[in-house]
């Protein structure tokens, strides 16, 4: 990434001010809430031009034994001097391996270059999900992929290939929701889901071209739980005024900012230290301004890091210490089913709480019964201090998919009047693992002290299913 160098300003005339230091605005860096940096990155610049890529860095062949290799080249480069050339008379099939992408949101970035004369066959970058094997092993499932079809001139059949220039591919993996979205030059090219029965973990990639494919180039791979915002240095300006530096950048409501800095560009900006205590700065949309004393260093570079501040937790429980204040009701005459706290043990469905824990609430710890109408209510939760809030909980839905239903309701604690509309949970879904469900708390409940109610109803058909289980309840802003 080429930094933009400080323009000195003196007396408002824009005159250069020699001998006062050289300062660079590198980028606006948007950080995921996890704060972790990355699993893997690759720019090929440390390898010899013309060298084979297999066995260098994280690169191996398919199933860790493949020999379909290619070379590092200086014919094109997004970040000089090198990139990876794909295509040619023989097939290319590569697997870069990494670890860490097992939960939360992760981002894959790759720079792509398709020459105007390349019009034969296609290139894929497949994604690898883990099962019981390791990266590249037979028990790793290939899915996706990102496809540049040079014959049709299309990206995943949805967008035209942009030729003779470097174009970003950006993929967002939501590992908790088991989904992915592929973007090409900022536009959505494909959305999809993880293969059924495979782990929600991305453990490698599979750049591939068949024999006879025209040449194309990849550079600047990055798999991380942080993301570089498309706003580059043009959005961050540094102006020198007398003995001060003035930073100006576009800001967004609800975000916070860190000023990070280093004296060189040899390390990733995400790892630079916060400069002079300027961390956790609040947003003043549409623009923030920060003034600091001019550093004495002869050369220094800066990034503004944008991040979503962690949520304010209003209430949370995982039920491992019990369920103080929780109440249950049976609203039907048959009493075939009740909300029970403990280890689920139905014919189907979960056999433990979320993440293997001991306790969860279930519609019977065994199978639920017919003709049931039961409610589970939380303790009173004070929402008077938050302008808006959300509810999340782990759920395992395992019912007949037809006549059974479940909803979330918000009740005023003082008189049990329902506030706003009830929110369906969707019992037509069949979960094969615990699933995070997020619900926006209805506006009518904000500012009130409320009970949250989970209501489950079943039809008159006896079924050998566990019904609905919930765990890990969280209310936050």
Would you summarize the structure shown here?
The chain contains no helices and 37 strands.
Would you mind describing this structure in some detail?
The structure is a single chain. The protein is mainly beta and 477 residues long. The strands form six sheets. Strands 4, 6, 7, 9, 14, 15, 16 and 18 form an eight-stranded antiparallel sheet that branches. The protein is built from no helices and 37 strands. 37% of the residues are buried. 0% of the residues lie in helices and 47% in strands. The model is unreliable at 1-20, 27-38, 131-138 and 228-234 (pLDDT under 50). It has three domains: 4-33 and 229-307, no CATH class; 38-225, Jelly Rolls (Sandwich); 313-476, Jelly Rolls (Sandwich).
Main attributes of the structure:
Jelly Rolls; globular; disordered N terminus; mainly beta; 477 residues; 37 strands; seven-stranded antiparallel beta sheet; eight-stranded antiparallel beta sheet; 47% strand
* First-residue to last-residue Cα separation: 36 Å
Low-confidence stretches: 1-20, 27-38, 131-138, 228-234
**Rough shape?**
globular
Mean pLDDT: 84
What does the main sheet amount to?
A: 8 strands, antiparallel
Q: Strand fraction band?
A: over 45%
Question: CATH class of the largest domain, anyone?
Answer: Mainly Beta
Work out the radius of gyration.
27 Å
CATH architecture of the largest domain: Sandwich
SSE map:
Layout: E1 4-5, E2 7-9, E3 22-31, E4 38-42, E5 59-61, E6 72-73, E7 83-88, E8 92-96, E9 105-113, E10 122-130, E11 140-149, E12 154-155, E13 159-160, E14 166-174, E15 179-184, E16 187-193, E17 202-209, E18 213-224, E19 227-232, E20 236-241, E21 244-250, E22 256-262, E23 281-282, E24 287-293, E25 299-307, E26 313-317, E27 327-330, E28 339-342, E29 360-363, E30 373-377, E31 381-382, E32 390-398, E33 405-412, E34 423-424, E35 435-440, E36 449-457, E37 467-476
Parallel strand pairs: 2-20, 3-25
Antiparallel strand pairs: 1-3, 3-19, 4-18, 5-8, 6-7, 7-18, 8-17, 9-14, 9-18, 10-11, 10-17, 11-12, 12-13, 14-15, 15-16, 20-21, 21-24, 22-23, 22-25, 26-37, 27-30, 28-29, 29-37, 30-36, 31-36, 32-35, 32-37, 33-34, 33-36
């Amino acid at each position: 990434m080429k930094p933009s160098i400080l323009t000195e300003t003196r007396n408002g005339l824009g005159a250069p001010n020699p001998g006062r230091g050289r300062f660079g605005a590198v980028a606006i860096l948007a950080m995921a809430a996890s704060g972790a940096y990355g699993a893997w990155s690759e720019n090929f610049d440390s390898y010899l031009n013309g060298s084979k890529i297999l066995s260098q860095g994280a690169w191996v062949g398919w199933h860790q034994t493949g020999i379909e290799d290619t070379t590092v080249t200086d014919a094109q480069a997004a970040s000089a001097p090198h990139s990876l050339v794909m295509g040619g008379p023989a097939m290319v099939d590569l697997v870069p391996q990494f670890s860490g992408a097992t939960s939360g949101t992760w981002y894959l970035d790759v720079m792509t270059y398709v020459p105007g004369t390349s019009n034969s066959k296609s290139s894929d970058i497949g994604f690898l999900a883990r099962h019981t094997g390791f990266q590249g092993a037979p028990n790793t499932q290939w899915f996706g992929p990102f496809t540049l079809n040079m014959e049709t001139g299309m990206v995943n059949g949805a967008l035209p290939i942009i030729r003779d220039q470097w174009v970003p591919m950006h993929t967002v993996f939501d590992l908790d929701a088991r989904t992915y979205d592929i973007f090409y030059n900022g536009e959505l090219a494909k959305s999809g889901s993880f293969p059924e029965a495979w782990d929600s973990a991305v453990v490698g990639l599979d750049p591939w071209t068949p024999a006879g494919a025209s040449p194309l180039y990849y550079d600047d791979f990055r798999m991380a739980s942080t993301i570089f915002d498309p706003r580059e240095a043009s959005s961050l300006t540094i102006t020198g005024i007398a003995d001060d530096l003035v930073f100006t950048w576009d800001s967004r409501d609800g975000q916070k900012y860190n000023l990070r800095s280093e004296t060189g560009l040899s390390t990733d900006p995400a790892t630079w230290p916060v400069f002079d205590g300027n961390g956790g700065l609040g947003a003043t949309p549409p623009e923030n301004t920060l003034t600091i004393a001019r550093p004495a260093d002869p050369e220094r570079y800066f990034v503004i890091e944008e991040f979503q501040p962690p949520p304010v937790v209003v209430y949370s429980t995982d039920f491992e210490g019990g369920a103080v204040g929780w109440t249950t009701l049976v609203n039907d005459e048959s009493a075939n089913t009740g909300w029970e706290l403990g280890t689920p043990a139905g014919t189907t469905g979960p056999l433990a709480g979320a993440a293997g824990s001991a306790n969860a609430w279930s519609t019977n710890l065994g199978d639920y019964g017919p003709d049931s109408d039961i409610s589970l209510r939380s303790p009173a939760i004070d929402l008077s201090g938050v302008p808006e809030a959300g509810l999340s909980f782990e759920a395992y839905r395992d019912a007949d998919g037809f006549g059974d239903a479940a909803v979330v309701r918000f009740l005023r604690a003082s008189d049990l009047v329902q506030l706003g509309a009830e929110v369906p949970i969707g019992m037509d879904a069949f979960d094969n693992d615990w699933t995070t469900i997020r619900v926006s708390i209805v506006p009518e409940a904000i500012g009130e002290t409320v009970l949250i109610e989970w209501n489950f109803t079943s039809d008159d058909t006896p079924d050998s299913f566990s019904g609905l289980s919930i765990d890990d309840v969280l209310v936050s802003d």
